[in-house]
Design brief:
This protein is mainly alpha-helical and 205 residues long. It has seven helices and three strands, in the order H-E-E-H-E-H-H-H-H-H.
């Protein structure tokens, strides 16, 4: 094995250590991937960084950023750049996320006239979606031994996926979505009262 190949391996190992350090940062940790890419003129060592977006704006802010490539033909000569490129892509996406515009929910920005009936729409959708979910669960219970708790958990996961899609469409950030989920759970717990496990509210309560 040549010294040049060894230096490439050492540089990649150091870069991976640096990426792990950055991933462990407590404030908005960055995910860094160091990948080998093959195919035509795109064969390269590729370094990519991303930060888990908390809003659609943060996701859009990172589009097209945080990626650097070193072609295979240049890898030996440019091995010394690898660690620096890790810091570079992390800095790029960090700045992009920091400068992303603040998320503003439609219900907080529209006029009173434009959101008239908003609460009624929420209730109508809740009733409709619950009815559909109950119909699906009943159908599944007739064909297999699906327990009510397992059905409720499946319903929760499906609802969260739908909520995530709706949140992105409405430009609702993760923090607001978490607050709404927390409020909804607290509301259900208040209605349920201090009863035992078997007295927990059913899905359509």
């Amino acid at each position: 094995m040549t010294d040049e190949v060894t230096s490439v391996g050492r540089a990649i190992a150091t870069a991976l250590d640096r990426a792990e350090q950055l991933r462990r940062l407590p404030d908005r940790p960055t995910r860094v991937r160091i990948m080998t890419v093959f195919g035509d003129d795109r064969s390269s060592l590729t370094i990519n960084a991303s930060i888990a977006a908390r809003s659609p704006a943060e996701l859009r802010a990172q589009e097209g950023l945080g990626t650097r490539r070193i072609p295979w033909a240049e890898l030996d000569a440019r091995a010394g750049e690898i660690v620096g490129l890790v810091d570079e892509v992390v800095r790029e996406v960090t700045l992009a996320v920091r400068d992303a515009p603040a998320t503003q929910r439609p219900s907080h920005s529209e006029t009173d006239v434009e959101i008239e009936g908003f609460d009624e729409l929420v209730d109508e959708l809740r009733v409709t979606l619950t009815g559909v979910a109950m119909a699906v669960l009943e159908s599944r219970r007739k064909t297999n031994s699906l327990s009510p708790p397992l059905g409720s958990e499946a319903t929760m996961l499906a609802a969260l996926k739908l909520a995530a899609l709706a949140a992105c469409t409405a430009n609702v950030g993760l923090s607001d979505a978490q607050d709404e989920l927390r409020n909804a759970i607290n509301d259900v717990l208040r209605k349920a009262g201090p009863g035992e496990y078997m007295q927990r509210p059913v899905l359509n309560s």
